[in-house]
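Why predict the complex rather than its parts? Because the way molecules touch one another can change local conformation, and only a joint prediction can capture that. The input here totals 727 residues.
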Amino acid sequence: MASKPNSSGRSDDRRIAVLLLALPLGLLAATLIVPMISAINISLRDIRVIGSDGPFAGFDNYARVLTDGTFWHALGISVVWVVGNAVVQTILALTAALVLNEKFPGVRVARVWIILTWIIPTVVVVIIWRWLLSPSGGMVNPLLIQLGIIDRPMGFFASGPAAMTSLILINSWRWFPFVAIMLLAGLQRIPNDIYEAAAVDGAGAVARFRAITWPLLQPTLLVLTVMGTLLSFNVFDIIWLLTAGGPAGGTETLPVLIYETAFKAYRMGDAAAMSVVASVLMIGLALVLLDRLAPKETGR
Amino acid sequence: MRFKGQSLAGALALTVFGALPALAVTDVKIWHMEQPPHRVQRVQELIDAFNAANPDIKVSQEPQSWGEVYAKVPAAMAAGNAPDILFAIPDFTTVIRKAGQLDSVADFVKELDEKHHFIPATVEPYSYDGGVWAVPLYNMSLNFWYHKKAFADAGIAVPTTWSEWKAAAEKLSKDGVVGVGLPANKQLYTDQTTYAVMVNNGASELFNADGTLRFDNPKTVESYAFYKDLYKFSSPDAANWTWGEAEACFASETCASILQFSVISTYDQQGGGDAADLGVAAVPHADGEKSSSTIAYSNAAIILAKDAAKRDAAKKFIAFLLEPENYGKFLNMEPGLFLPVTADGAKSTTFWSDPLVVKYKPQVEQMIANSHAGMLFGFTGGHVFPAIGPISAQNILAETLQKVVINGEDPAAAVKAGQAQMIEATK
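Output of the joint prediction:
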């Protein structure tokens, strides 16, 4: 029979817990809270070039940013980017996860193979896709011409909508395997007995998916939705390397605008104000998603 | 005991004699934007030669990208990690000067001028506010490059006017070939091609003499409208182009012609290398204009080092580069692209004896001739307008062009918005 821990033992445990938490919390404070305070400080000053000083400007930077159409345009582009990625990645990942959850020869290899796109460095992804989509020498245009879908080479980044669609597909191609693996883990946690009982009751594949798979995947989907939204919103590298926010601002998401404002327009104060507003929006969105999508506790 | 004493003496000697040279070496870090591997290699060869001749100085290079350097240098300066020598162009120099405390190099330039005789036009863009802020290193100008055979087969003469240019581009655009490769990216290359069109329509001045903006004028609007007409015959992915994509398009003969500083290296390595088929001419001018102009850059070296020893070492390296024997090798890191800024450099045997320069001598001579009619936005009419820095950094010329050719905005409205954006940028 295990002995009941006494109060001094509990106190020691608490001390150890505090000590163990101190390091990660300290690191978080140093790497997150300090820069955030610094960003808020910069956002209240008229600082142009990074590293230079500037006079206190109150909320002038916020007023300028929030009344400037560029900010709202970039926010709109960010929404398209986040929603587009969420939809495409969820469809691709769910399909892949359902297939990989089945038993068929080579499934183990397929489960490893699928994560290859996810582990390729962004720069390599960019080079691969720029080459594939190039109208002069790329492979995709001749293929589409051969299939009769287009009659002449097209520019996949030639207009705002085309560039945004291409970016979403490329980013989804890269990230859906990660989502698929997470969903696969969720699928494998669903007890087989439930499916067997449903099958005995005469439920078909679609009915089993609607009544069992989909509801029981909700916790995993919730985590993925919150995480995916925040991660997608903050994506900078692939957009910057493929289109740099162009053409004509067609893919200029908020992170890209913030970078350009800070380092090309040399308006550090404005960029910091945008960052603070974006952070507040993201925190708010995360709280709303957690509140709305989390399974509600039922009274006992 | 004796052995121990000898060991100690030996260790002391090693420490003293081993450490002394290390202590005396002055490190000089260079940032330049000449990223292609063969250029980096040529710069390294010159650095190695300099380091070997100057054991008390250790020069090293860190190639950067034009796309990022406008952001990176002010950040590096703020972090105290800036290079000692920074290669720059005139508008970028105004940005650097605003971001940090630059010291004038007027005396050093004067000293070099007495020895090598700078072409005055290459020093002027760096001379303002009572100082000279960089040492000119090389000149470059934009040219009209074309495949002679493609033009001959289509029965077209080399265009000299806009109407001829447009007709040629239209006629050459068939069977997967684009008549003229023109970019529309929000990037420096598009700034350059846009300005090259503007200067050929009498729209070279972005500023009035009093420093106010005059970008929004009928000549600029006409230039943007013409670019839009011509862009119809460019590549479908040109909205994403930088210099490399244009050169690749030309080398693969997908582009019958392009506007580019030089294509010689790429053409020689990837485009067949038939010197007789490579045409270069001045950028065509508007029908109402009498002669062609182009955009020309005097590239220079800024000395960012503050430490006296580092500044002296940096000057010594720059002086080494401008010695005619080294200078020819330096310019030929990209044969034909970089043109001399000094009188003795223009006669350098190492410049003219390079195998590629020998092979493409007529083209190089034509490029030098074209460069004589070169202009640069913000540095025209004998004036220097430092306000050009943020305008160039934000690529407002190119952004305005994107509004016209990609979004289909009316050129007059886009140019008006462009001027408003420039005013905002320079506040």
